[in-house]
Please model this.
Amino acid sequence: MERMFIMATTQVTEVGDGDFERMVLAAETPVAVDFWAPWCPPCRVIAPILAELAGEYGDQLRIVKLNIDILPAYIGRFGIRGAPTLIVFKDGQEVDRLVGSQHKSTYQNRFDAILGVAHA
Model:
């Protein structure tokens, strides 16, 4: 199956402590969580890439952000060693992890593999 590009207005949303369980761990589709911090230059570099990918993947894969400065407990909970760290969850379990700034194609390849779609 080929990856479908959905050029919708899907945006990357901020997830908080009160909705992490529902929006990430209990989600019916895979969710990529960008563990970021405002002081982190690579986090600012990947933000527009992730926003673009959120529009392309639409409902197939949700992308959310979690500010580790505001919610530092998640650093220990998920073994975050640097920002940005992107963890993809599927059926409540971690299925992939990327640390640092990556090229858009790297994110696409990893997301496609998780979704089981052919590379465009």
About this structure: Confidence is low (pLDDT under 50) at residues 1-9. The chain is about 35% helix and 20% strand.
